[in-house]
Here is the input.
Amino acid sequence: MADYEVEISIRELTKSFGAQTVLEDITFDVPKGKITVVLGPSGTGKSVFLKHLVGLLKPDRGEIWIGDKNVPALNEKELYEVRRKFGVLFQDGALFGSMNIYDNVAFPLREHTKKKESEINDICSEKLEMVGLVGAEKKLPGEISGGMKKRAGLARALVLDPEIVLFDEPDSGLDPVRTAFLNELIKDLNKQLEATFMVVTHDIPTAKNVSDYIGMLYRRNLVKFGPVSEMFESDIPVVRQFLSGSTEGPIGMSEEKDQTKTVKSSSGMTAAEVEEMEREAGAPVERERPGAEEASAEQGG
Here is the structure.
């Protein structure tokens, strides 16, 4: 039994696509109110695992308990109710390229609630301030940096006040400086909101800096799950190699070594203040490709 309050309980989760088994007998408990990182080399089924949590995929066998609900066994109506507990930050932010930042953030409230526009404005303003985007409300996704797109996607994920927030490779497509600032924001918001955060990544600095608990996937299995300090002191060869970024060991790959940076959370800052902070820390200037954001939204939407 876990020695903490459990938000999600995963039991013997197994999934195959054809002859390829992607996940096998995954079993662990996600702590309530903490940041859990699911870590592992690319192609180990991390995003597939996330899709099971919200019922986008059904396992071949296994259970996923959220309260008294077993997600794979739910009908569509029951699944809809469970999904309302979740907010999701997608890899690319999944913003609508033709909508400004404010309308992107307001979208779930307009689609899933009957709130008045004055209420929606109050909620969106609060969430945009939380993620450091005050002043960027009227900008289109194609006019802001990659880090700002991630934070806009995060604000949208928070507008329905979810109990559980999922982050699918939040560092994907970001330079190390903007990744470090986003990580600080994730930690800060977890303390502010007291929600359960689950972060899927293969980035070692992200895992080290944001996590309270880490579960490591490798070759379709959960190698180990435990508190971050315990994981970084593990003597399991695959865990030790991956978390140290070593080329020596059972994993036939090399990962970028940890680069520690002094950063702070952008929560409460204006968008302009965040951009200046990122530039001062050495983040590269980003140039947008015309039409790229619109294509991204159509694919994700």
Q: What stands out?
A: The CA atoms of residues 103 and 137 lie 8 Å apart.
